[in-house]
Amino acid sequence: MSQDPDSPQFCCAANIHVAPGTALPDLCAIQYAILENAGYSIIATDVAGTILYFNRAAQQMLGYAWHEVVGRETPELFHVEDEVVAKARMRAGASATDCSSGFDALIGRVLAEGRDEGDWVYVRKDGSRLHVHLTITTLRDATGKLIGFLGIASDIGERLRMEQELRVAAIAFESQAAIMVTDAGQRILRVNPAFTKLTGYSADEAVGQLPSMLKSGRQDRSFYQQMWHELGETGHWQGEIWNRRKSGEIYPEWLTISAVHDAEGELSHYVSTFSDISNLKVAESEIHHLAFYDPLTSLPNRRLLLNRLDKACQATRRSAEYGALLFIDLDHFKTLNDTLGHDVGDQFLIEVANRLKLSIRAGDTAARQGGDEFAVMLDELGLEPAAAAVLAENLAEKIRGELLRPFRLADGSEHYGSASIGISLFRGQDKSVEVLVKQADIALYRAKDAGRNAIRFFDNAMQTALDERAALEAGLRCALVRNEFRLLVQPQVDTTGRLLGGECLIRWQPPGRPQVLPGDFIPLAEESGLIAPIGAWVLDEACLHLRRWAENEATRDLYLSVNVSASQFRQAEFVEQVSAALQRHGADPARLKIELTESLLLDDVDRVVAKMQALQRLGVRFSLDDFGTGYASLAYLKRFPFEQLKVDRSFVRDIASDPDDAAIVSAIVAMGNTLRLNVVAEGVETEEQHAFLVEHGCRCFQGYLFGRPMPFTDFAAQAGSLPR
Ligand code: C2E
Ligand code: MG
Ligand code: MG
Predict the structure, then answer these.
(1) Nearest-angstrom CA–CA distance, 702 and 626
(2) What is the spatial distance between Cα 665 and Cα 649, in angstroms, rounded to a whole number?
(3) Confidence grade of residue 2 (pLDDT, cut at 50, 70, 90)
(4) Considering just the CA atoms, what is the radius of gyration of the chain in Å?
(5) How far apart are the first and last CA of the chain?
(6) Could you give the CA distance from residue 316 to residue 378 in angstroms, rounded to a whole number?
(7) Average pLDDT across the chain, whole number
(8) Residue 164: is its pLDDT beyond 90?
(9) pLDDT for residue 205 is more than 90
(10) Out of 3.20.20.140, 3.30.450.20, 3.20.20.30, 3.20.20.450, which CATH number does the structure's domain 8-156 have?
(11) Which residues of the chain does CATH 3.30.450.20 include?
């Protein structure tokens, strides 16, 4: 605000003391200039409080122009209401001591002492408040008579704000977060109680030290370099850091450091606040563990395995080294689980996990994919594929060997397990993780296919086979409706060559392609569920032929055997299915024989027996196929209503050359006879085999020596020509 042009020139008051010889007008001008340019608000009033003078700073602070205030009374202008009342009382002649508070009290003290000062509140023209420090002095003339008051006020708003901030800062300093203030040279100046609580160091122990007293050694030099670099660049750093308490315990904290600069912009302090995030870390790691680890074995789960595979693929792209993925499947785990219970199964899986962990190198990953499937990821297998394959195979062998060692179960018994292992090599991003996993899976499938307890590598031939398999499955889905199946029959004879019956053997003839043998499509049909409609078709055809046989004298007393897969037998409506097929064609149930394999017998025994008995009541008989390839002991077999036992072809084949096979076959035949089971030798191709079998008591035979699988028409013709 500029000087009001109407403002009168200030006249020196009579009581101004001047140095001898000073020209009074000059002095007045100087005094006036001082008053006008002072940084304080200066207001002079007469005794009644009427404003006589109001300097430029006052005009600026309070928002009034000169002519708006001069001649008016101060209280009504600048003071709050209660102070106005107090003033009125004072004017009425009340003594200073009566004045108790506010402006009243101030004036009272001024009158008593000649001057007084205190913090005060002015009201600006716009109504806002202004905090000032006010000094009031009495103005007296040369005779000492009171002629007025002089008020000098300075704006203390800023100071009050500072004080307020300091109070807030002081409270903040007492907060839950640990606070440490250092000088620019990082010497600790102050710490708060939370700091002591968190670190264990008292303020006395900490002040004067460097923050490195808290170092845990977990972060390396580059971590701190990066931190100081960022602090220098931005004045700020925050992040997670591991520190050490006085007790030696290492803990994680969330740390924020701010650089403080003085008015000149020079770095003066660092303020660090930090809090203990151990609990957060525990929760975080629990979540991490649940998401990425198998709860039973604590091994990484499939998600983490895929994660690591992905990283390994990226790393090997840079290093060009090979890695390998091993898929490990525990053979017959389901049987163990079903027969001994899930607790034992779990215990076994934990032990498998332990053995895997012990078999691999430090940087490798052993994971549980789920169920009885495990995986191992190896990296850094070198630059040569052949050498990498050898390394991977060696490790796979080691694992296979480890899993062959007997497992001691909780009840003290021993369990012998084995594993099938599929291996796929990888390097960089030659193939996606998805493809890599699929290939390891294919290799595993091959290992199982090779009779289990085996190791197989994925190679391209496998891929081709797999593609063929996919094409086969697609074709199989349409084969029934396109009527592409044929049923053949293979004769079964007694010692004299007399025909006893035949076994139905299915063939698939896709159009324009070679005929497919059951071994190449039945497992596929089982996996895809197609075995149900295919099996039903076979049963229906068999009953049709039985009915036809019944009409022919040469065939009416013959048995017809039908192969039934375990999954087909397990169907809930299997008994009804058989019964319906028999009735549909009016076939004699007593002439139908169902061939089952040993794998079925490991299922729920009671249920299997009950089903067999239901069929038995229909008149149907049972034959146990491929005996000797599974686990069933002859004693175990007594629990099931079998009438016939078929010695697997693989034993018969080498009967003449392999003494072991010869011994096995003769033992099976002898025991079968003891148990009053009708023993059939399968795959008899030579007279030599036949002679051996006869010599050891076998009475029934099936094999190329007596006839290959043939169409029913040929069979009937052959039967008709045989002597009865
Ligand atoms: P399987 O029931 O053990 O049938 C005997 C297999 O041995 C037949 O193979 C037969 O052709 C073959 N065989 C018989 N005598 C000889 C011989 O002297 N030498 C040789 N090398 N082989 C001989 P095929 O027809 O390939 O059938 C294989 C398997 O497929 C059967 O084994 C049976 O388990 C299954 N299968 C066949 N037909 C059906 C069916 O309709 N349903 C089901 N579920 N499985 C079937
Ligand atoms: Mg059979
Ligand atoms: Mg067989």
Answers:
(1) 12
(2) 10
(3) very low
(4) 52
(5) 140
(6) 11
(7) 86
(8) no
(9) yes
(10) 3.30.450.20
(11) 8-156, 174-276
**Helix pair angle (574-585, 605-618), 10° resolution:** 10
Ligand 1 within 6 A of CB of 628: no
Give residue 16's pLDDT.
43
- Give the lowest-confidence range in 6-10, 369-373, 712-716: 6-10
Summarize pLDDT for 142-158 with one digit per residue, the tens.
Answer: 898 889 889 999 988 88
Q: Band of the pLDDT at 92, cuts 50, 70, 90?
A: very low
Of the listed ligands, the closest to the CA of 542 is 1
The lowest-confidence range among 93-97, 280-284, 369-373 is 93-97
- Provide the token pair at 291: 């998401």
pLDDT of 635: 66
Taking the centre of ligand 1 as the mean of its atom positions, its distance from the CA of residue 563, in whole angstroms, is 9
Strand order of the β-sheet with 323-330 is 365-370, 373-378, 323-330, 419-426, 455-457
| Region 174-276: CATH code | 3.30.450.20
From the alpha carbon of 565, which atom of ligand 1 is closest? Answer: 44
Q: What is the mean pLDDT of residues 636-651?
A: 89
According to CATH, the topology of domain 479-719 is TIM Barrel (3.20.20)
Q: Is 685 in the pocket of ligand 1 (CB under 6 A)?
A: yes
Q: What is the DSSP letter of 114?
A: S
Per the CB < 8 A criterion, the answer to whether 488 and 710 are in contact is: yes
Q: Which amino acid is at 296?
A: L
**Residue position matching structure tokens 């002591």:** 196
Q: What is the pTM of this model?
A: 0.48
Rounded Cα distance between 42 and 56, Å, is 8
CA 657 to chain centre: 58
Evaluate: CB of 589 within 6 angstroms of ligand 1. no
Say how many residues make up the chain.
724
Counting ligand 1 atoms within 8 A of each CB, the residue from 682, 686, 704, 710 with the most, and so the one to mutate, is 682
- 630 within ligand 1 shell (Cβ under 6 A): no
Residue-wise pLDDT tens digits, 303-318:
899 999 999 988 887 8
CATH 3.20.20.450 in the chain: give the residue spans. Answer: 479-719
Could you tell which of 476, 492, 504, 505 is best to mutate to test the pocket of ligand 1, judged by most ligand atoms within 8 Å of the CB?
A: 505
Phi, psi of 116, deg, nearest 5: -160, 160
The CATH 3.30.70.270 domain(s) of the chain lie at 293-462
The answer, yes or no, to whether any atom of ligand 1 lies below 6 A from the CB of 683, is: yes
C-alpha to C-alpha distances, 98 to 88, 124, 137, 145, 508, nearest whole angstrom: 13, 29, 19, 22, 124
* Share of residues in the chain with pLDDT > 90 (%): 48
Cα–chain center distance at 416: 34
The alpha carbon of 506 and the centre of ligand 2 are apart by a number of angstroms equal to 10
Give residue for tokens 């294919």: 442
Q: Which of 538, 545, 563 has most ligand 1 atoms within 8 Å of CB, for mutation? A: 563
Q: Distance from the CA of 324 to the center of ligand 2, in angstroms?
A: 40
Counting Cα atoms < 13 Å in the Cβ hemisphere of 325 gives: 30
Integer Cα distance of 578 and 543 in angstroms: 9
Pick the CATH number of 293-462 from 3.40.225.10, 3.40.50.300, 3.40.1190.10, 3.30.70.270: 3.30.70.270
Output the pLDDT for position 91: 47
Is the separation of the CB atoms in 543 and 585 below 8 Å? yes
Please state which of the ranges 165-174, 272-281, 322-331, 670-679 shows the lowest mean pLDDT. Answer: 165-174
Residue 174 CA, chain-centre distance (Å), reads: 39
The residue whose CA has the least distance to atom 22 of ligand 1 is 683
Residue 413: what pLDDT? 81
- pLDDT above 70: residue 84: no
